[in-house]
């Protein structure tokens, strides 16, 4: 039976990569009858790219629940990948999407949350803590007899995306620095976005008698990378991969905010989210890895930091280096 899949926030990096994988990898594409992408920015380059790959793009105009429900019903999706958007009104838009999925009676829903949200404090990391409220809202449909949406739910909590480290490529290229406000003692385990997409695509296309595969259905899946690292250890891994010396610099949160505002495309809410995650690292709340689910679901091993840095070597390579590169 082929699925009719709807992916929200398709214009963002996460939504785009999941959609691209579902459309191009035969392991997933062959199980999908259609892929529709709900987008706040339907004319974005990423949406145009997905159209070329065979996705249908539907404009999402948040603010009117009835319209969002109508859009979902017109798609006719039986499966949904619900990704909170990168937007200052992320919480309200996601609440509306959760409610709309229930009213549109979509049985199989995979909700992307965030690792660390359960350890975040409401006063210190409010943007991260919001995900706990959203998870509770999403899970409440489980006992709601008026909808089939709670019938086959999955929550995926990805950790810190390794790609966020590329926001500091300017410092890496010009000064040979990796500046992060994470302190010097505690560790975290960045995960490659592609690894998150792999797990989610397996979930979205897994089949069981109740919808999603029984191996995934009802699961709370926490995903981190396979290597716990301090800032120094990340810089060392990057140095080995690109054949150049990169140094970690522990910077203040105020300085980090300035750097991110200066060179990131992210909006204020996304910058706040990143700063809150860094504060979790400083508090020692990210000193763990969670890769068992990745192994169980994909049968593979998540990307190690040296391999990640190798892929993005050109983004990090110092422009004014006079050193002979190692081979």
From TrEMBL:
Organism name: Aspergillus vadensis (strain CBS 113365 / IMI 142717 / IBT 24658)
Occurrences of domain NmrA-like (ranges): 42-266
Domain of life: Eukaryota
PANTHER family per UniProt: NITROGEN METABOLITE REPRESSION PROTEIN NMRA FAMILY MEMBER (PTHR42748), NMRA-LIKE DOMAIN-CONTAINING PROTEIN (PTHR42748:SF22)
Keyword NADP: yes
Keyword NADP assigned: yes
Key words, A-Z: NADP
Name used for this protein in its record: NAD(P)-binding protein
Similarity field: Belongs to the NmrA-type oxidoreductase family.
Gene Ontology CC: one annotated term: nucleus
Pfam families: NmrA
């Amino acid at each position: 039976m082929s699925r009719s899949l709807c992916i929200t926030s398709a214009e963002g990096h996460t939504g785009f990569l999941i959609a691209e994988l579902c459309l191009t990898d035969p392991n997933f594409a062959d199980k999908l009858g259609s892929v529709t992408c709900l987008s706040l920015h339907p004319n974005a380059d990423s949406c145009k790219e997905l159209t070329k790959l065979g996705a249908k793009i539907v404009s999402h105009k948040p603010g009117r629940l009835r319209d969002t429900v109508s859009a979902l019903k017109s798609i006719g999706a039986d499966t949904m990948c619900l990704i909170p958007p990168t937007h200052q009104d992320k919480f309200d838009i996601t609440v509306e999407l959760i409610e709309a999925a229930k009213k549109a009676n979509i049985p199989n829903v995979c909700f992307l949350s965030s690792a660390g949200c359960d350890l975040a404090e409401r006063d210190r990391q409010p943007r991260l803590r919001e995900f706990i409220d959203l998870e509770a809202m999403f899970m409440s449909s489980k006992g709601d007899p008026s909808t089939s949406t709670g019938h086959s739910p999955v929550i995926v909590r990805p950790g810190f995306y390794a790609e966020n480290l590329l926001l500091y490529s300017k410092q890496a290229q010009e000064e040979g620095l990796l500046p992060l406000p994470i302190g010097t003692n505690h560790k975290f385990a960045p995960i490659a976005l592609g690894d998150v997409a792999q797990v989610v695509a397996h979930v979205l296309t897994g089949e069981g008698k109740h919808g999603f595969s029984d191996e995934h259905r009802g699961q709370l899946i926490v995903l981190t990378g396979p290597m716990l690292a301090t800032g120094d250890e990340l810089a060392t891994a990057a140095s080995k991969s690109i054949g150049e010396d990169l140094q970690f610099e522990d910077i203040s949160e105020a300085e980090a905010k300035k750097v991110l505002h200066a060179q990131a495309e992210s909006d204020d809410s996304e910058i706040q989210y990143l700063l809150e995650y860094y504060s979790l690292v400083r508090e020692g709340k990210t000193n763990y890895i969670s890769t068992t689910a990745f192994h169980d679901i994909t049968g593979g091993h998540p990307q190690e930091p040296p391999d990640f840095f190798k892929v993005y070597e050109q983004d990090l390579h110092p422009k004014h280096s006079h050193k002979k590169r190692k081979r």
